[in-house]
Every structure is written in structure tokens, then in C-alpha cells.
Amino acid sequence: MDIQGLRTVAVLAVISDHLLGYPFGGFVGVDVFFVISGFLITSLLLREQERTGRISFSGFYRRRVKRIIPAAVIVIAVTIILSWALFRRTRAESITWDGFYALIFGANWHYAATGTDYMQAGGPVSPLQHFWSLAVEEQFYVFWPWLIVLVMGVLAHRLSLSLAAARRLLAGVMGLVVAAAFVFSLWETAARPTVAYFSTASRTWELAVGALLAVIAGSLPTLSLMMRTVLGYAGLAGIIWSIIYVSPDMAFPGPWGCVPVLSTALVIAAGINGPQPYLYPLTNRVSNYLGNISYSLYLWHFPVIILMESVVPQENLTAWVLMVLGMGALSIASYHFIEDPIRKSSWLDPSPRPPRKRKSSGLDQPSKQAAMGVLVSVTAFAVILAITTTTETEPSLSVQPAPASTSGQEGATPDAPPDTAAGRLSAEIEAASTSTAWPELSPSLDNLAFVPEWTVDKCMNVTDANFSQCIYGDTAAAKTAVVIGDSVALSWMPGLRESLGKQGWRIQLLTKEQCPAIELQVERSDDKAGFADECIAHQQWTMAKIAEMTPDMVLVSSALNTRDRLVGAPAKEEALSLWSEATVQKLTDVREVTEGQIVLMSVAATGKNLMECATRVSRPGDCAVTDRDRYVSTVAAEKAAAESVEGTRFVSTVPWFCGSVSCPAFAGTTPIFVDPQHITPEYSAKLAPVLSEAILGPEEG
């Protein structure tokens, strides 16, 4: 009963984290599951080894297949089918591949790879991403039974050990596994945090803690009911503390994974020598039932959340209630029609003799249960989506230019004359900000890409090694412009090549991914160790290059989300103040080493991921920029910084992204964002005449 209660706590923590984003440590529910799994599976294997003198590997893996595969396959299939119905081709194809990796229990390594790929890290969340934990478990159980056989069977036999001595030997071996795996987890968490989170090697110690507890269970001292109750509540308190206070910013799974892992082991240990009548939060009927269906709940909850968010993009109480009802109905149906009946059936069991021929050619019972489960699951999900989708998307309408108007926000530039490039762009932005239907976009949302200077020329990270290959425009030109900053600065390049490059300028990139032009200590989005120092070193190298080149122009640009990655995670107001001070300092430092013109291009807006928000049932407003206030306040702070340093031209990007109503996802028929941070190469090129006017002035531009 207390095991089922622990499963309830674990699955509710995970669901709450994914649905509400709170508690921040809800993800530790997976660690609770790992310990439970290691304990239960090892207990079963040990009982079989001691009862029969051997472990039937065919029987073990047959039971795993019956327990895991049927419900998982149906969830994967339903998710893929609905993804093709809701999403555009590129995202649907991506989810299909996610389903493939989930089926072969390789999802954790798949997501570890995409999570450390900067171009994919900002992509839409997969509704099958949670299958990574199942992959970790099944990879663990590929070798774990063999280790038990090696120690309890082979070594114990050769050393003529008694059963008790064999158990002690196994406990020692497992203790070494726990220690070694934990040390590796500490190293990998520090060196490669994203990989460590998904890594079987860094998670092995968690499953092994549960396994070690199963081995030593018979040797634990017999405690009074009161003492066991106290220990049970202490362990439960540790789990709850982890759920509330452990955050993604902490080193995880090592060392902070120790708290939920050891707390879970404590709760299990407290219940080994007898029932826990006073551990009511874990032993009541509701907790017991939710624990029974926890596997189905875990499988269904994330597809329900992600797929329903595509048709109900606004987070509100109604949406949350519908999601909870949806995942609850699907999980109950899945458990009673698929998971439990197939687990108890004779499917895959060895037959002592050939089965007698039947006159009926109908489906066997497991197949009937699976078919019924599929029917119930698909029907329920379809009804839920139908309820949330009140209307179909209207046919595409052409976007007609509207009169330009002032955004009314600080940091915006005055209205541009309608006969200028800025005026024409402003009209397109204004029209898009009030549009109720998607135009025929070019490129289509299925063909969005990052700028070629990044993907083809590999000039994301410029060093002495690739310095000469990251020169654009007229390489023999008398005038040189240098671009410093991060990948957002790099994203301006198609437009800069069209504007400056075709007007007799040589453009030199000095960019580095996630490293802003201004000297602030920042973390990488994947928490790569040592990145803050690496970034500062690059900024110092950049200043040395500028002093050496003495360019005619230095263009400075950084990403808005840099404010979210400052070392120490300062509060909103402090982060903006640090940003302003660092901007003034950078402009001053540049002025000291060159007499050329300094152009501070304000941060670009941060949009939504179009592959996530633009579905077959969405409208343009669903993809509009939501963090407009932070964007405009940062632009205003940069403008003030530029005005304090003589010879600096400030270029506000607000009119390039925002109209009077909203900051839309497209202008005319051109998509603006390829992901939340970076503009498309097509939009960058579209900005070429605007960039000419803004940077060179109307005379040259």
C-alpha cells in the first residue's frame, strides 16, 4: 500500500510540474519511480533466484513486455495520429521520430542529443518526451539481472557461499555500483548537465539504491511500529521538500537527486517489516488507486497537456480542468482495458503443448482488450479536443497594408514616412498585428531555417581558426564593419549583407553563441560548466581584434533572453540595471579602441516557436509576442545607454517587430521567427533596406 502511495506522490508531482509549472521540483517524481522500480524488480529477481536457483531471463523480459509495451504502444500511436491531425508536417514528422525512439527505448539518448544541439534546443516540446524515463529503466534492466546471476549464481557457487553470504556479497557489489555510478553522475552533471539528466549512466545509482535496499531488506533491524511510522513520515517529508524546493537550476541528478532518492528509500524501508497503518497519506484508498493507475497516468498526461495546449494556447482554469479530466479518463480506460488485463493474461506465456484448433477465427482476449483500449482512448481524446476546439481556422486572407501608427511604447521610433522602407514595413507589421487568419507564408512553416552564416558557413563561433572564412561583402572594400554579439547578432547578417555588403562594405563577424556583446557573466542555456569564463575570454578577444582592425563601424547586438541567463539569477529590476551598466561600459570600451562609428542595434523581440503555436486550428494572434513590456523596457534602457556615449548611433528594432496592437509572427507573407530567439533569413533579408536607412542614414541608405 505504501508503495502505491509513493507512486501517487510521484506521478502527481510530475503532472503538476508539467501542467502548472509548479512545484518547481515536480520532476523529482521520476527519481521516486526509479527507486521504487529498482526495489520491486530486484526483490522479484532475488526471490526467483533463491526459490529456483536460477533466473529465467525469458520469463523476466516477457513480464516486462506485458507490463510496459501494450499501453506504451497505444499512447505512442494515438499521439502520432493526433499530431498529424493537429500540427504541420515538420512538427508531426519530428514527433513520429520521437515515437520511434520511444518504441526502441532510446528516447533518453535522443533527447540528450537534441537538448545539447543549440539549433534544436529551442524547438517545440515533444508530447512523447517523458518516455525518456522508461528508456532509462529498460536499459538498466538489460544488464541488471545478469549481474544478480553472476554474483548469486556463478560466484556464490564457485566460492561455496551460503545464501546469507551470497546476499552479503551481492550487497557489497551493489554498494560499489551505487558509489561508482553516483560519482560518475556528479562528474557528468557538472560537465554535461543536459546529457546527465537523460543519461542512463548518471541515473543508474538511483535504480541501484532501490535494488540495494531489496538485497539488504532481510537484514534490516525489526523496529517498533512507532519508529517505522516516524521514519516513514520523515522520508515522505524529504520527498515533499524535494518537490517544493529542488529546482532545475540545481545540480541534478547529482548531488541534489540524493534527497528524493534517499527519502524514497527511507519510506520503503519503513514498510518492509510490516504494514503502515498510520502512514495515511500513502495508504488511503485514493492513493492506492492512483498508484495502481500511475503508469497509465504517466503515459497519458504529457500528450494530453501538449496536444491540448495546441488548441487552447491560453493557460486558464478551464483549460487545466479539461486537461486533468482528459488525462484522468484516458488513464482509467487504459488501465482497466489495456494495462491490467494484458498484464494478467496468458499472452506471451509459454504453452506446455500446442494449442487446440478453434473454430472461431476471432481475436484472442489480449487483442480484444488492446483494440477496445485503442477505441476508448482515441474516442475520448477526440471528444476532448472537439470540446476545446470551438471553431475551425478561417480560410487564409490576404494581408492588406494598413496605415502606419505609433506603438505608443517608449523605445519606439516615430512613425516613418509611408514612402520609405521603414514606412512600408510598418504598414505590413500593423496589418499583421490585427490579422485574424494566416496568409500564405513564404517560406512555409514547414521550411523554416536558421541563417546560412550559422548553418552553412559555421560562423556561429568565430575564433582565430575561422576568422578569415567569416568575412562577407566586398573583401577588398576600403570600409570595414565588425559585428559583435551572439547568435541574434548573427541573425542580422542576411540583411546586413544586402545593405552594407552591396554598398562597398566589408563585414567581419566576431560572434559567439549565447555570449552577448556586452560583458556580463552569463550561463549557457544548457548550464555548460565554465561557460561564463569562456564567454568573457571571447569578449576580451573580440576587443583585441577591434583594436587591431580599427574598423569604420562596430555593430553591437545581443539576445533579449540574456537577461534570464545572468550568473546569480538577479531579480528583474537588478538584471535590467546590470544590462544598462554593461552596455554603457561596452560602448565606452569600443570607443576607446576605435574612432569608427558605433551602432547599437537594440535587442530583437522574442517570439513564440511557430512550429509549436502555429497549428491547423490556430490563429495568428496565438503566436504573437507575449513579453512585449520586457522587450520595450530593454530597448529603452539601451537607448539611454547609447545616448550617454558620444558617437553612438542607436537603432530601435521595435517598429520592425511590433504594431500598435501586438507584435505579430509575420510581416506581409514572411515569417519573422524561426524559433523564439532568432529571425528567419528571409525576414532578415527583408529588413535590408530598413537596415540601410537606419544604419547609414537616408542619404547613403
From TrEMBL:
A single MF term (Gene Ontology): acyltransferase activity, transferring groups other than amino-acyl groups
UniProt cross-references to Pfam families, sorted A to Z: Acyl_transf_3, SGNH
InterPro entries assigned: Acyl_transf_3_dom, Acyltransferase_3, SGNH
GO process terms (BP): lipopolysaccharide biosynthetic process
Region (Disordered): 395-421
Superkingdom per UniProt: Bacteria
UniProtKB keywords: Acyltransferase, Membrane, Transferase, Transmembrane, Transmembrane helix
Residue ranges annotated for the Acyltransferase domain, each copy included: 3-333
Keyword Transferase carried by entry: yes
Spans through the membrane: 20-46, 67-87, 140-157, 169-187, 207-223, 230-248, 254-272, 293-311, 317-338, 370-388
Low complexity compositional bias, start-end: 412-421
GO cellular component: membrane
PANTHER family (alphabetical): ACETYLTRANSFERASE, ACYL_TRANSF_3 DOMAIN-CONTAINING PROTEIN
Protein name: Acyltransferase
